[in-house]
Amino acid sequence: MKNSLLDTVTLKNDFIKIYGESTYEVELFKSPARINVIGEYTDFNGGKVFPAAIDRYLYIAIRKRNDKLIHYSDLKFPEKFEFYCDQTFTYKKENSYANYLNGILTVFARKGYTLSQGFDILFCSDIPPAGGISSSSALESGFAYAVSELFGFNISRKDIALAGQQSEHEFMNVQCGIMDQFIISTAKKDTAELLDTETLDVEYVPFNLGDYKIVVMNTNKKRQLADSKYNERRSECEQAVKELNEKASLNINYLCQLTPQQYEKYCSLITQDNVMKRARHAITENDRVKKAVEALKANDLVLLGKYLDIAHASLKDDFEVTGIELDTITESARKQKGCLGSRMIGAGFGGCAIAIVHKDNIKDFMDNVQTDYLKKIGYPAMLFECNTSDGVSRL
Ligand code: GLA
Questions:
Q1: What residues are in contact with ligand 1 under a 6 Å CB criterion?
Q2: Which residues pair with 355 in a beta bridge?
Q3: What is the number of the ligand 1 atom nearest to the C-alpha of 136?
Q4: What pTM value is reported for the model?
Q5: How remote is the CA of residue 175 from the centroid of ligand 1, in Å?
Q6: In the chain, what's the furthest Cα-to-Cα distance?
Q7: Nearest CA among 62, 59, 58, 60 for reference residue 25
Q8: How far is the CA of 149 from the centre of ligand 1 (A)?
Q9: pLDDT tens digits for range 13-43
Q10: Residue 110 Cα, ligand 1 centroid: separation in angstroms?
């Protein structure tokens, strides 16, 4: 669905078909997907990330009710959910995506944003689910923003992002960083956001690739294991911090407080090989973010592309979060004419990768990558070009 007047009318009509007429107004919002140019697995290590929101959206129609009921439905899923606005929520497997939303309402209530009346909501998304471009954070930030606007809470975009992250931690048991919810809440079109995840300071950097475009490549690999491995990676990084503090008498809170040179000096003090490798990835990746942003600012897209390739290698060999699908697709991408670099994005283990591709080569690029991927993996990938977008907004 594109953001046209016709589509918003359609969404409103669908909403009224499901929930009927009311004296309250239906309010409409959209929440984007995201890519991450570079800076993977640095966000829970106090490092920098460089994401951008893109033009794939979750659309939200929401309307107050006269009673205390809450209803969630989604045009693409059959389940419908009913709750009360003043109930206590707990995670329940059968509540599927509603858990993310109930988690947000729980965080809101704790902060004093309580609801005295209910609401109905209808979602419709063109973001591939569990595909690595953050459909879940689009849902969290989009929902939190829509509820905040509907009830006049005026919660800041930063706090919207933090509520989404908190919901993941408490309700979904994913100890995620802040990157996804933050970029989706605060993005500005035509820029990528250099976010310092320790301080939450932001620099909006113009994201102008001239004749080049970002192509998103969804491996279509399902990722059941992602969450448990994700938390495992986080603990390994925390283990590295603990050991370095104890053995090198450091006093760091996060790995990314160290430079690659400091890492080299102290790394032999880390006992486990895998923990050492996780630390090396986080610390060198943080350094790459700074260098890649400099390359972009200097309009050196060839160098930017190289950093993407190096980042992928580090995620593959040191952080070990890629897998055959992401390795195959990025390897094929790098071989194609007009491609400057390619890497996995997000949590990995499947999901999406990106490539920087010359606009004149995009068609051949997509055909060739698809052919290589299908031949090796046995099922097709999904490739599409993207543009940057604003963060969550009212339609
Ligand atoms: C997921 C998480 C983010 C971040 C990335 C890896 O997308 O939600 O917080 O940790 O993985 O960079």
A1: 40-41, 43-44, 176-177, 179-180, 346-347
A2: 215, 342
A3: 8
A4: 0.96
A5: 9
A6: 68
A7: 62
A8: 27
A9: 999 999 999 999 999 999 999 999 999 999 9
A10: 25
Between CA 51 and CA 40 the distance in angstroms is 10
Question: How do strand 212-218 and strand 191-196 relate by DSSP bridges?
Answer: unpaired
- Single-letter code of the amino acid located at 369: V
Q: Indicate which residues carry an active-site annotation.
A: 180
Q: Please state the atom number of ligand 1 nearest to the C-alpha of residue 179.
A: 9
Q: Quick one: DSSP state of residue 128?
A: P
What integer is the mean pLDDT of 236-265? 97
Tokens 């929902």 found at: 143
In DSSP terms, which residues pair with 257 in a beta bridge? none
Phi, psi of 223 (to 5 degrees): -130, 55
Task: Classify residue 305 by burial, with Cβ atoms within 10 Å: 0-12, 13-18, 19+.
Answer: buried
How far apart are alpha carbons 155 and 378 in whole angstroms?
A: 46
Read off the pLDDT of residues 145-196 as tens digits, 9 standing for 90 and up.
Answer: 999 999 999 999 999 999 999 999 998 889 999 999 999 999 999 999 999 9
DSSP 256: G
User: What was the pLDDT predicted at 132?
Assistant: 85
How does DSSP assign 302-333, residue by residue? HHHHHHHHHHHHHHHHTS----HHHHHHHHHH
Single-letter amino acid, residue 212? Y
List of residues 6+ apart from 247 with CB closer than 8 A: 266, 269, 270
Token pair 């055909």: residue: 367
Quote the CA–CA distance of 209 and 300 in Å, as a whole number: 10
| Structure-token pair, residue 308 | 């993407």
Rounded to an integer, what distance in angstroms lies between the CA atom of residue 253 and that of residue 47?
Answer: 11
Instruction: Quote the CA–CA distance of 322 and 187 in Å, as a whole number.
Output: 27
Q: Which residues of 187-208 are buried (b: 16+ CB within 10 A; e: fewer)?
A: bbeebbbbbebeeeebeebebe
